[in-house]
Structure formats: C-alpha cells, structure tokens
Amino acid sequence: QGGKIPIRWTAPEAIAYRKFSSASDAWSYGIVMWEVMSYGERPYWEMSNQDVILSIEEGYRLPAPMGCPASLHQLMLHCWQKERNHRPKFTDIVSFLDKLIRNPSSLHTLVACVTHLILMPDSPGEVPEYPMFVSVVDWLDSIKMGQYKNNFMAAGFTTLDVVSRMSIDDIRRIGVVLIGHQRRIVSSLQTLRLHMMHIQTIKT
User: Has domain 136-192 been given CATH number 3.40.630.40?
Assistant: First the structure.
C-alpha cells in the first residue's frame, strides 16, 4: 500500500483501483513482449506517465516495433484489451506461441513500422476477438470443421487471407453440402474478415 506503480507496464484498472489479477499480468506481459521485440526501447518513449494514462484511456496502444510479425503484435493488442475479461489467459498465450513455433510461416507477415500510438476501435462491431489461431487448419479445428481441411487445401484455400474472401458459393463448391456446416463456416468467416481487416489496419 502506498508503493509506486510502474505506470508504463500496468493495466488501467490496476492503476485506477489497484486491482491486480492474472488479467493485469497479461497486460504487463504484452508490454514486456513489446520491449523484447523493440530491443529494449522504452514503452511510450518520452511521454509522461500522465500522458500514458490518458492515451490508454482514450483507446491508444503501442504500435508494432520495427520488423515485428503481425501475429505477435496481434497478441500484444489482445493483452491490452480495455476489458480485462477479454484479455487472454496465460494458458491461451502459451498455446498461441506454441502454434506460432509449429507454424513459422505465420511469422513472415510483418507490420509496417510507425512511431506513434495507434487507436484501438471501441465500437463493439469493430473490435475483433483476436482469434488464437495461425493457420487455416487451426481455424477449422477451432470451429469443429476440421473434417473439411483437405477440401480447403485441395481447392487452394491455404491461407487465412484467402479464406477470408470466400463466398457461400465457394464453400459449396469445395464440397461442404450440409446446411448447418455451411452456416457455421459463413458465421465464422465474418469474424475472420474482421480479424484480417484489423491486421491490415495495423500494417498500414
């Protein structure tokens, strides 16, 4: 009680109400990840602590460091969700990092370097859930449609970017004939498109 709080590494609810939890630890983990990827750069640069607090409250977040894979910055942004219940648990983080290790090609997409804070959308319809998958097979397994992975691969739908552009006709054409399965895939594609749009936004 009464001790100093490291503002730049601390979740907003921990700063405001001293509510520390595994969710606030996830926020701090995201900041440390940013430090590692920026080779020890100071989070929020020369901004004052008060400016950091105000910027975070207004929805601004750290941009990706130079040369940072989009998937890792995606994880950082997930850790920096304003609502602590929306942040990943550490078991989710470990699982996601393990998937990246097993799918190194997912690290090839880099984020364009910017030197200013980026604004996180706060409209419920604009905030993607930052899904914890890194490949088409991973995505299909997450919606329990893994039985169609060979259909997707054979038809050339091998990346999340390509899959996100699929139409209902494409889904039927590759052999998904059950109406319930078509609906499940179409519904998930809407979330996937938001996810891919977000990746494109932080890249530019």
Answer: no
